[in-house]
Amino acid sequence: MRILVVGRGGREHAIIWALKKSPQVKHIFCAPGNGGIAELAECVPIEEKQFDEIADFAKKQAVDLVVIGPDDPLSEGIVDHLEAQGLKVYGPRANAAIIEGSKVFTKNLLKKYNIPTAAYESFENYEEASAYLRKQQIPIVIKADGLAAGKGVVVAQSLEEAENALREIMVDKVFGESGNKVVIEEFLTGQEMSILSFVDGETVKPMPAAQDHKQVFDGDKGPNTGGMGTYSPLSHIPQSIIDEAIETIIKPTAAAMVNEGRPFRGVLFAGLMITPQGPKTIEFNARFGDPEAQVVLPRLETDLLDIILAAMDGRLSELDIRWSDQAAVCVVAASGGYPASYPKGLPISGLDQVREALVFHAGTAKKDGSLVTNGGRVLGVTALGASIKEAREKAYAELDRIRFDGMHYRTDIAKKALV
Ligand code: AMP
Ligand code: GLY
């Protein structure tokens, strides 16, 4: 098969790495890809949102399957667009990708179907939102309705911070149209976990749970990022809680989407909080997580292409998906300054010294034949081991061989799982 993967991050590198293991895969293209992906796939200079160019390229190259990585093109209907051109595409259509694209949609869906989530109200009017906010307890969570590159959520520790966030979203429109509506939500306490599932209508095949580290600094300090590191499995969280989340949140949500005439086909990512009252939904994403994919896919023993093809034929329920017992830890190395502004084009060295880990590139490019930084999150080092402890030690030891100016990473990835 000839496959085109759309995206340019560590997630897409991990997807391509997993697809490449399939004996059925003949050739992989990636639009636009990055410096590391270029080692496994033929990168083509087409951007994720150039739907017409992607369709033309896929048809001209007789691509059998297009796999979409990121959220933006999914929300904007890339799947519908490519399908209308007769292409086979893996990912949710726009009417299902809305589960990530609109927080108001998802909160209303969860409320309608009695699926556990934080209490909330949504607003289109700034004055009303502001009046409601003043009556709430602190901390409180303010969320822009639409996509905001992971920055549209503010957990406010004071009323002033909450009011500022609300003003920035609704009045200053720092996230543009994404701030036309807001959700004001109860603050939940507990541990977070991510459960990604292969979903085909009502069929849900959960992947092993993972945990991300969103804040930029050790000890969960500093601003939120796209994700600084992940690990899987969550050996310190009882399986009964993970099962409860699957039964009370993920399966009912997939069924609700079918009932709403919006069947979800693709990877459904549930961001969950394990509260004293049990797991509750924080958010849904309509795609693999980044860097969740970088710890989950290396544990997948079943052929990823078989899973995708089964889901596309409505045969996912027949498939027995196998996972390795090994633990995986991914540590992300970021550019100096990230998640604020950062330089690009700095040389990266030491990759050829890495022996016992997978390096998934996130923001790298080839310049005159050598590898340079080209994004905020530059790369993620994933190591596998018999335990989280072993995988973690290996990931850090291998990361230590890699260098670029300003490189920084968290030193406490997966530390919670060591107790
Ligand atoms: P999201 O973009 O919805 O994943 O939110 C980003 C982060 O904000 C989450 O990973 C949580 O750490 C935090 N967060 C979101 N909603 C809540 C909530 N209701 N209570 C506590 N923390 C939250
Ligand atoms: N790592 C979080 C996300 O992909 O949204």
List the helices and strands and how they pair.
Blueprint lengths: L1 E6 L2 H11 L6 E6 L9 E2 L7 H10 L4 E4 L2 H5 L2 H7 L4 E2 L3 H8 L1 H10 L7 E4 L2 H9 L5 E5 L8 E4 L2 H12 L11 E5 L4 E10 L2 E4 L4 E2 L2 E3 L3 E4 L4 E4 L6 H21 L5 E11 L2 E8 L7 H4 L7 H9 L14 E8 L23 E4 L2 E4 L2 E4 L3 E9 L2 H12 L20
Parallel strand pairs: 1-2, 1-4, 2-3, 4-5
Antiparallel strand pairs: 6-9, 7-8, 7-9, 10-11, 10-16, 12-15, 13-14, 15-18, 16-17, 18-22, 19-22, 20-21
Helix pairs in contact: 7-8
The chain binds adenosine monophosphate (AMP) and glycine.
Glycine (GLY) binds next to loops.
What does this structure look like?
This protein folds into four domains: 90 residues, 3-Layer(aba) Sandwich (Rossmann fold); 68 residues, Dna Ligase, domain 1, CATH 3.30.1490.20; 128 residues, ATP-grasp fold, B domain (D-amino Acid Aminotransferase, Chain A, domain 1); 92 residues, Glycinamide Ribonucleotide Synthetase, Chain A, domain 4 (Alpha-Beta Complex), CATH 3.90.600.10. The strands form six sheets. A five-stranded parallel β-sheet has the order 3-2-1-4-5, sandwiched between helices. The model has no long low-confidence stretch (mean pLDDT 96). The chain has 419 residues and is an alpha+beta fold. Bound molecules: adenosine monophosphate and glycine. Glycine binds next to loops. The site of glycine has 7 residues, from loops.
